[in-house]
């Protein structure tokens, strides 16, 4: 199983929403990254956001150190078999991931 995670932030870095999930099929990291990209674009479409900056934690694309929150969300979703969207009223576990990312 593979997992994905994404965090949507405003221009000040404030978390607006996010999603984390598990892919039911065993795929490579690139496919999980593609799912995160698709989920990101779907979220932007739902919210009618017109301007986006997409970041990735796929080792083939960029270093994970630049997107620790999404990387931690992937690990958390995988560990808990969790596939759900969240908004600003998110679970404590997700809050801890976001807070650690904001502090660092």
TrEMBL record:
Any matching Pfam family: RVT_3
SUPFAM superfamilies listed in its UniProt record: Ribonuclease H-like
InterPro entries registered for this protein in UniProt: RNaseH-like_sf (IPR012337), RNaseH_domain (IPR002156), RNaseH_sf (IPR036397)
Signal sequence annotation: none
GO molecular-function term, one example from the UniProt record: RNA-DNA hybrid ribonuclease activity
RNase H type-1 domain: residues covered: 3-70
Domain of life (superkingdom): Eukaryota
UniProt feature coiled coil, ranges: none
Protein name: RNase H type-1 domain-containing protein
Source organism of the structure: Gossypium harknessii
